[in-house]
Amino acid sequence: MKYLLLISICLLMPLQSFAFVTNPYMHANTIATLAVSTTTTGHRCTSSLLNSKTNNTDLSSSSSSSSLSSEKLTDQERILQETLGIQPETEAEKQIRMKKRDAALESTKNSKRKNAFIAILAFTAAILNYGYQFTHPITSLTLLTQMQNNSAELNVIGNNGKPTVVDFWASWCENCKAAAPTLMSIEEEYKDRVNFVMVNGDKGENWPIIERFGVDAIPHMAMVGSDGVIETALIGPIPRSVMKDDLNAMLDNAEKRQGGSEGKMILPHTMYDAFRSKPEMRQLNFSADEIAIRLGQKD
Predict the structure, then answer these.
(1) Which of 78, 202, 210, 224 is found 20 to 30 A from 56 (Cα to Cα)?
(2) In terms of C-beta density within 10 A (0-12 exposed, 13-18 middle, 19 or more buried), how is residue 24 classed?
(3) Is 115 helix (H, G, I), strand (E, B) or coil?
(4) Catalytic residue among 143, 154, 176, 229
(5) How do beta strands 164-169 and 195-200 pair?
(6) pLDDT digits (tens, 9 = 90+) for 144-154
(7) Residue 230, φ and ψ in degrees, nearest 5
């Protein structure tokens, strides 16, 4: 503005000089007018400069405040605020969110540790069990002993509506040992529908039972119907399919008997008949007293 003022004065001076020369009486008025004009212009320039500085200061202050405010927001927070009107979270809210996240991460870590610990225990138990089974194998004699311990009593024959398998065995009998796994699997499959009675032929107290069934060799497996009648006896190692066929036939006969139907299905596999000459001896009905008498426990 100062430069504009000087330029204006310089341009006006020749004009005033020309007017002064033309009309000397205008000299005093011209100088006075010029002075007033110069003073007014100077005040206006000064005012404009002050107003410009004030406006610049306000803009600078506003810009600085806006930049300070925007510096506190992330790009994501600024976009959410400008587009969706979502206000950024406060510091307290942020701390709460961070604590919840840390708690969730800690819970996940603890769960993983627990699952890993359980997996290690299970793996260790499996290794130990394998080692024990390897060093203590289950023999056929062990299976026969287990079945003997789980054996039903003789008085269930013909009294509980189920067919019965009576197996005579001995520890020295190789065929008994060979048949033990098959008999064990059959017992597991039919144990809820069939009675399984084991008789150890090595024990002297079992001789009365051995004689009653007409056993002359072992292994001897008597197949007894639900009515207590000995259907047949299977001698030696018996295939699984043969045993299942005879058991299924006896179960069908038991179902017919319960339904009041007459007639019995002949077993598909029959071998030894110990009572061919005395068919009436096929009927069994052991009471507790009779068993005690036969075992020599009661007179």
Answers:
(1) 78
(2) exposed
(3) helix
(4) 176
(5) parallel
(6) 999 999 999 99
(7) -75, 115
Which has the minimum average pLDDT: 33-47, 132-146, 166-180, 219-233?
33-47
176 is catalytic: yes
Q: How far apart are CA 295 and CA 299, in angstroms?
A: 10
223 burial level (CB within 10 Å; 0-12, 13-18, 19+): buried
Question: pLDDT tens digits, residue range 11-35?
Answer: 444 444 444 444 444 444 443 444 4
- How many angstroms separate the CA atoms of 178 and 184, rounded? 11
DSSP reduced 3-state for 232: strand
* Res 72: pLDDT: 67
Spatial separation of the C-alpha atoms in residues 95 and 106, rounded to whole Å? 16
pLDDT tens profile 165-218: 999 999 999 999 999 999 999 999 999 999 999 999 999 999 999 999 999 999
Q: What is the CATH number of domain 142-294?
A: 3.40.30.10
d(CA 79, CA 96): 23
How would residue 163 be classed by pLDDT, with cut points 50, 70 and 90? very high
257: exposed, middle or buried (C-beta count within 10 Å: 0-12, 13-18, 19+)?
middle
Q: Report the relative pairing of strands 230-235 and 164-169 from DSSP bridges.
A: unpaired
Provide the residue count of the chain: 299
Q: Are 246 and 269 in contact (CB under 8 A)?
A: yes
Beta strand pairing status for 220-224 and 195-200?
unpaired
Scanning the chain, the segments in alpha helix (DSSP H) are 2-22, 26-71, 75-79, 91-135, 140-149, 174-190, 207-212, 240-258, 288-294
- The vertex-274 CA angle with 272 and 278, nearest 5°, equals 140
- The active-site residue out of 152, 173, 243, 249 is 173
The rounded mean pLDDT for the chain is 78
Radius of gyration for the chain, computed over Cα atoms and rounded to the nearest angstrom: 58
Q: Assess whether 45 carries a catalytic annotation.
A: no
